[in-house]
Amino acid sequence: MAMTTPFLLLQRIVPQHALSRLAGSVAASERRWIKAQLIRRFAAAYEVDLAEAARGIDEFESFNDFFTRELKSGTRPLADAERFILSPADGAVSQLGTISKGRIFQAKGRDFSTAELLGHGDESAQRFEGGTFITVYLSPRDYHRVHMPATGRLQSSVYIPGDLFSVNQQTAEGIDRLFARNERLACMFEGEDGLFASVMVGAMIVAGIDTVWPHAFTGHARAPVREDFGADGMALEAGAEMGRFYLGSTVMLLFEPGRVEWDASLSPGAPVRMGQALGRRLKA
């Protein structure tokens, strides 16, 4: 399908990484006049619910500090993690379904390879054949910390450099293999739900991906970085924070077959909040 809209064509020609690095340097500035203007204008333009934030609008050290703001205690109650898989973030469902023939559905007429997305090799990707996936898009106004969908121990991660296309629905419908070509961090966890993956996908203007554990990768790098943690990997409870985005993006969850049944009420475009039940655990 040809890309015909000006928005999609513009993403092809702009220097994505240079633009994101520039945005990152401005967002990290602690100069009062810069951060104050950015925060107030952004909050107004995107109708950010500041009543949920644990700190007042003048208490943030930088725009990044505001963007990755923590929420007041109790703002995101967790569903019963003994029975359900939890939403890893605030946002909207982009797609969900079954992984078939090594492919994950992106949009009408478009899909991508599980192995390419994860970067862990064909053997690991094969474990998800016939399993389930869900893609959650975080809009600019959303809370941008990423949490655990289930309890698990970190086994490995792969930082994969790539493009920085926008990840909204228009771009998903117009760019082939979008989530498997953008910069991303694919994390593997092992728990009672078997092996599961949480993939943090970067996007246009995203200035960084961070994790709650020490890591060796840096954003906008040119080469993949794989880290194997094994028995030393951090154990995280369902609902615990695992990482955050410095500006925008998407989280994808992948589970092995026979582990999760997504809630029948969920469909593309459905809003979700961190901690909400996304589906039933089948082997809990």
TrEMBL record:
The UniProt catalytic activity note for this protein reads:
a 1,2-diacyl-sn-glycero-3-phospho-L-serine + H(+) = a 1,2-diacyl-sn-glycero-3-phosphoethanolamine + CO2
Q: Which GO terms describe its biological process?
A: phosphatidylethanolamine biosynthetic process
Keyword match Cytoplasm: no
Q: Which residues carry this modification: Pyruvic acid (Ser)?
A: 249
Query: Listed GO molecular functions?
Result: phosphatidylserine decarboxylase activity
What EC class is this?
lyase
Spell out the InterPro entries in the cross-references: PS_Dcarbxylase, PSD-B, PSD_type1_pro
Highest taxon, organism lineage: Bacteria
Keywords annotated in UniProt: Cell membrane, Decarboxylase, Lipid biosynthesis, Lipid metabolism, Lyase, Membrane, Phospholipid biosynthesis, Phospholipid metabolism, Pyruvate, Zymogen
Q: Site annotation (Cleavage (non-hydrolytic)): which residues? A: 248-249
Q: What is this protein called?
A: Phosphatidylserine decarboxylase proenzyme
